[in-house]
Amino acid sequence: VLVRHEQGAAHAADGYARTARRPGVAVVTSGPAVFNAATAVAQAYSDSIPVLLVSPGMARNHPVTTPGSGFLHEAKDQQGAMDAIVERSVRPTTHQQLADAVTEAFASFRHDRPRPVHLEIPLDLMDEVGSASITTVEPPTPAPTDNDRLHLAATALANGLPLYTCNPKDFAGIDGLTVVAVPVPGGHDREPKASRKTRAKR
């Protein structure tokens, strides 16, 4: 779908992802165009919507440490700016890294908390002809379920007691406080974010 403005492209990808329940993809150019799309992907991050934003970036041999050469749509730190508002911003430097980055983005949309990913492709890499192997990402092993703690959480909810999102370490040693750890999708094989994995019951 061709749009009149980059913000519209990213909002359209967000809207598609919400209605079709599939990842949305927006392709824009570099510099101001990426930042025009920033509002939409920032909202997608807030709402956990899977959006892949693809844009070119400066060539691999471009002096990124000393910007200001006047190259078209040059930005001081495009990847760093986008990395601050999306799940991650990836800049591949080879065709294999590019293929892996796309695979990992769609795997994270399916198996982790779905949040937007920015893919910055260097201009000279886009001009090259190359080959890459398409790999398959295996679904992660779900975290084991602690039925006793799940029952404790269910009992608390049934009795009208609130469950608070917290880090159990913050409440260690407090009398009368029971910490309930509830495994959730995306909390496998790595240290999860406390807000995504832990619950506490007073």
Explain what you see.
With 202 residues, the chain is of the alpha/beta class. It has eight helices and seven strands; from the N terminus they run αβααβαβαβααββαβ. The protein has helices at 6-20, 32-36, 38-46, 78-83, 95-111, 123-127, 147-158, 194-197; strands at 24-27, 51-57, 88-90, 117-122, 163-165, 178-181, 198-201. The strands form two sheets. A four-stranded parallel β-sheet has the order 1-2-4-3, sandwiched between helices. A three-stranded antiparallel β-sheet has the order 5-7-6. Helix 5 links the parallel strand 3 and strand 4. The longest helix is centred in the middle third of the chain and has 17 residues, at 95-111. The radius of gyration is 21 Å and the shape is elongated. It starts with 5 loop residues before the first helix and ends with a strand. Residues 182-202 have low confidence and may be disordered.
Architecture blueprint of SSEs:
Layout: H1 6-20, E1 24-27, H2 32-36, H3 38-46, E2 51-57, H4 78-83, E3 88-90, H5 95-111, E4 117-122, H6 123-127, H7 147-158, E5 163-165, E6 178-181, H8 194-197, E7 198-201
Parallel strand pairs: 1-2, 2-4, 3-4
Antiparallel strand pairs: 5-7, 6-7
Helix pairs in contact: 1-3
Structural class: alpha/beta
For the termini, the CA-CA separation is 51 Å
Our Rg estimate from Cα atoms comes to 21 Å
Report the mean per-residue pLDDT as an integer. Answer: 80
Instruction: Report the principal-axis shape.
Output: elongated
Helical amount? 25-40%
Largest sheet: 4 strands, parallel
- Spans where pLDDT lies below 50 across 5 or more residues: 182-202
Proportion of residues in β-strands: 15-25%
Task: Provide a count of the helices.
Answer: 8
SSE ordering: HEHHEHEHEHHEEHE
- Strand arrangement within the widest β-sheet reads 1-2-4-3
DSSP, total strands:
7
